[in-house]
Amino acid sequence: MKLPRTTLILILLALGLGGFVYLYEFRGATVREEINEQKQQIFSFAEDDVQSLTVKTKKLTLNLERSSESSNPKWLIKSPISGPANDAIVSYLMDLLVKGKSDRTLSTPVKELGEFALDQPQATINIILKNRQSHQLILGKSNFNKRFLYAQADFVAKPDGNINVLLVSTDFANAVNRDLSEWQQPVDNSQKLPGLSTPLPTPTNGK
Description:
Layout: H1 5-37, E1 40-41, E2 50-57, E3 61-66, E4 75-79, E5 83-84, H2 87-99, E6 101-102, E7 105-109, E8 123-129, E9 134-142, E10 148-153, E11 162-169, H3 171-176, H4 180-183
Antiparallel strand pairs: 1-6, 2-3, 2-8, 3-4, 4-5, 7-11, 8-9, 9-10, 10-11
């Protein structure tokens, strides 16, 4: 039986639409997934692997060391002062170091690092692991739309003499550009205040 011309056109349109939906939904999803997979993990160590951190900014050099005791705080400030660190602040930075990814990588000649402010960085983070391995993350300036920071992780020159410049989250700048007081454990003033249950002195009536 021969199909009417209009029916045949509708069938062809339906097949064409179905093919478009397949390419957009399924193939497009595959392409997007491949792009996401290209995002490079900055470091491969775990948080528990880290023994010490040195954070150097333009106004402060801070040395942090993991506490040998299991109780809080987990981190101690070793210099420029000595004392317990603010675990929440340190954990925020650690989370970025452990889970952070580079949005993309730029192969760049060493002589052009100044274009990314990596020759005079806003911050340098040195990491020492428990196995004595060391890592370093250098933070340069923001990119043109302020969405990312140029960064360099573990300086390694490639065979062509270039190095990899990464684009990382601006959260790194927020994590390290802090005053010393923010890195310190907050003072608990509750112990210095009189308890609410403390009875007030009873006034005496004069006779």
